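Tokens in:
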């Protein structure tokens, strides 16, 4: 069986480091917002070359707190790509209105040319999502944001270490948000997230919002929530951060090898933009007979995924947005064709060759 991800294999490769880090936390008796969280915040900020990083409980809450810190209120509009299924829940959580934008077929990221068509008097922010590990076209998005005086909150949940024109994602907008869900390129052993920014006032707001709006203990200056990264996860992430660039390089090599051996097989291979460094959180191909191929590969012991099978406007929970089928044609088409193949640092050439062999067999 070839899994979609191999978290057990990843753990075995760094077992001694992880066990030591966890043991230190357990012996310390300090489990919430302690020295490990502070150390990880500093080191992650340094890694991104950004001033401030604030650890929170999940990627979704990172986005929620970033929106609140940026002054987004109930009834305000927030633009995002129509395929960003998890992202949209952060917007709805604060009562803001998701304003969907179609994607570019080549990258699966938000299409900057479509953003102005959606902007209206409600619109206060844009959330570009660096999907699958490839940065969105931030230069064009930032120009639009300046023109319309909108906040930019980057969703970097799948793009730890990805680079856009020399800068790591998360450092380009007003705020950047990361998820440390276990399957991410930098993943914890549970939930976790981070908000990053170069703006001191925004950083102070997020720090207060993650802890009941408190500036001092038991003195709430604003309405906040309970969203804290814990010491165990911070200790684990500190270990993994040391390996992140190496793991990302391995993912890129796997992607290059996939491209080499899957040419002419019947799947459409992902396109990497020349001005970015894609870190292949997922290796996503397109195929018209997606569901049949997925079932065939599963019978052969190869687990694949679909990220994501349904556009936001097809979800019953977002029926109230009043979008209809056909409003976002590129998104709708992509959701019917995308298939994520196994792509993780411990995946070997033997397994990749086997996957390619079976894909070729399917099309024959």
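Residues out:
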């Amino acid at each position: 069986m070839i899994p979609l991800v191999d978290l057990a294999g990843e753990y075995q490769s760094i077992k001694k480091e992880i066990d030591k880090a966890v043991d230190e936390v357990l012996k310390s008796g300090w489990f919430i917002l302690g020295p490990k969280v502070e150390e990880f915040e500093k080191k992650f900020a340094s890694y991104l070359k950004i001033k401030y990083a604030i650890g929170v409980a999940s990627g979704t809450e990172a986005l929620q707190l970033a929106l609140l810190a940026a002054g987004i209120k109930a009834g305000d509009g927030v633009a995002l790509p129509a395929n960003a299924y998890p992202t949209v829940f952060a917007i709805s959580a604060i009562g803001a209105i998701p304003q969907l934008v179609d994607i570019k077929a080549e990258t699966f990221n938000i299409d900057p040319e479509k953003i102005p068509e959606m902007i209206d008097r409600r619109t206060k922010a844009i959330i570009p999502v660096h999907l699958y590990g490839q940065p969105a076209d931030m230069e064009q998005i930032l120009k639009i944001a300046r023109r319309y005086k909108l906040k930019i909150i980057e969703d970097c949940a799948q793009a730890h270490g990805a680079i856009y024109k020399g800068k790591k994602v998360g450092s380009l907008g007003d705020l950047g948000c990361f998820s440390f869900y276990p399957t991410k390129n930098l993943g914890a052993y549970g939930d976790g997230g981070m908000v990053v920014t170069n703006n001191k006032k925004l950083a102070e707001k997020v720090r207060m919002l993650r802890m009941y709006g408190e500036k001092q203990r038991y003195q709430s200056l604003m309405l906040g929530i309970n969203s804290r990264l814990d010491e165990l996860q911070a200790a684990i992430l500190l270990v993994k951060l040391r390996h992140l660039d190496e793991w990302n390089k391995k993912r890129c090599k796997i992607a290059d090898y996939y491209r080499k051996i899957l040419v002419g097989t019947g799947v459409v291979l992902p396109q990497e933009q020349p001005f970015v460094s894609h870190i292949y959180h997922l290796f996503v191909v397109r195929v018209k007979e997606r569901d049949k191929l997925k079932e065939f590969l599963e019978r052969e012991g190869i687990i694949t995924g679909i990220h994501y099978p349904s556009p936001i406007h097809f979800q019953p929970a977002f029926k109230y947005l009043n979008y209809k089928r056909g409003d976002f044609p590129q998104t709708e088409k992509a959701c019917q064709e995308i298939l994520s193949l196994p792509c993780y640092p411990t995946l070997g050439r033997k397994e990749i060759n086997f996957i390619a062999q079976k894909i070729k067999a399917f099309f024959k």
